[in-house]
């Protein structure tokens, strides 16, 4: 099975703006896939639909064979989302934010604590576990959202511009972490408007512009054409 299959995906926002005009996309299990495109191309809209934060206008979406229209709970269980905006409660502690995620996915409390410790450690945030989220730097907040997204151990991790506003040192360590997670078998899809990020991380790439996929290729092939 494929991790993701999208067919004829369309999104028209209220007011009539067509953000997606028939997107087709296949991401194989185990892949590290980049959705690359300029601002306004439709990347966040695509991700929003897959994670059921945005309603689609038309088209089919399947996640590990589960249909977004009829098997929404299975779809949600398989996806971990790292959105672009910081959408956690800034007054909660790092540990609370990660462990509280367990409730949405039926992860038992003890297991949630174990996993929180594991991921916060791997992401260099364990020492900050009792700090309120609002005291963290931007890069730490981004990593906090990654730890939160992994708590239910999804098979597909989706990140929307994961290193936006993160400095180069930290960006490298986030890249290392994501590569490690991918090698452990988690399929990763990230959006970026930044080719170097896709180049370092990704095996396959889709280029989106004005709501359409204009190229779908391997990173190798793309680079040999530049
Ligand atoms: P990207 O993530 O590639 O920058 P988006 O998916 O965020 O692109 O946006 C695609 C287009 O849809 C943009 O032109 C954007 O202004 C528009 N758009 C996004 N969200 C909304 C909305 N809620 N209502 C109307 N238009 C929107
Ligand atoms: P509150 O806003 O009171 O902290 P919410 O119910 O909005 O609580 O959710 C807590 C956090 O978990 C929010 O940041 C929310 O975006 C996130 N969240 C909720 N449901 C999901 C989900 N299915 N996948 C990923 N994150 C989620």
Key structural traits:
37% helix; ABC transporter ATP-binding protein; four-stranded antiparallel beta sheet; ATP binding; six-stranded mixed beta sheet; 226 residues; alpha/beta; globular; binds adenosine-5'-diphosphate
Query: What percent of the residues sit in helical stretches (DSSP H or I)?
Result: 25-40%
Q: Rg from C-alpha positions?
A: 17 Å
User: How would you sum up the major sheet?
Assistant: 6 strands, mixed
Mean pLDDT: 95
Number of helices: 9
Organism: Aliidiomarina halalkaliphila
Domain ABC transporter: 4-226
Protein name: ABC transporter ATP-binding protein
Keywords: ATP-binding, Nucleotide-binding, Transport
Description:
- It contains 9 helices and 10 strands.
- By secondary structure, it is an alpha/beta fold.
- β1 and β2 form a beta hairpin.
- α3 packs across α5 and α3 runs parallel beside α6.
- The longest helix is centred in the C-terminal third of the chain and has 16 residues.
- The relative contact order is 0.20.
- The site of one adenosine-5'-diphosphate (ADP) has 12 residues, from α1.
- One adenosine-5'-diphosphate (ADP) binds next to α1.
- It comes from Aliidiomarina halalkaliphila.
- Keywords: ATP-binding, Nucleotide-binding, Transport.
């Amino acid at each position: 099975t494929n991790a993701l299959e999208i067919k004829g995906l369309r999104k028209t926002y209220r007011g009539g703006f067509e953000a997606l005009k028939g997107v087709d996309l296949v991401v194989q299990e185990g892949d590290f896939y980049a959705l690359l495109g300029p601002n306004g191309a439709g990347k966040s809209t695509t991700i929003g639909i897959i994670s059921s934060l945005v309603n689609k206008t038309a088209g089919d979406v399947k996640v590990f064979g589960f249909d977004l229209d009829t098997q929404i709970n299975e779809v949600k269980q398989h996806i971990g989302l790292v959105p672009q905006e910081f959408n956690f409660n800034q007054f909660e502690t790092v540990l609370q934010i990660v462990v509280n995620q367990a409730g949405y996915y039926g992860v038992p409390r003890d297991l949630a604590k174990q996993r929180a410790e594991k991921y916060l450690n791997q992401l260099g945030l364990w020492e900050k576990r009792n700090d309120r989220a609002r005291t963290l730097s931007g890069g730490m907040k981004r990593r906090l959202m990654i730890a939160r997204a992994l708590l239910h151990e999804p098979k597909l991790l989706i990140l929307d511009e994961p290193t936006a506003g993160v400095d180069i040192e930290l960006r490298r360590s986030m890249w290392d972490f994501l590569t490690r997670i991918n090698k452990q078998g988690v399929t990763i899809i990230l959006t970026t408007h930044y080719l170097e990020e896709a180049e370092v991380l990704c095996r396959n790439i889709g280029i989106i512009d004005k709501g359409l996929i204009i190229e779908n290729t391997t990173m190798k092939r793309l680079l040999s054409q530049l």
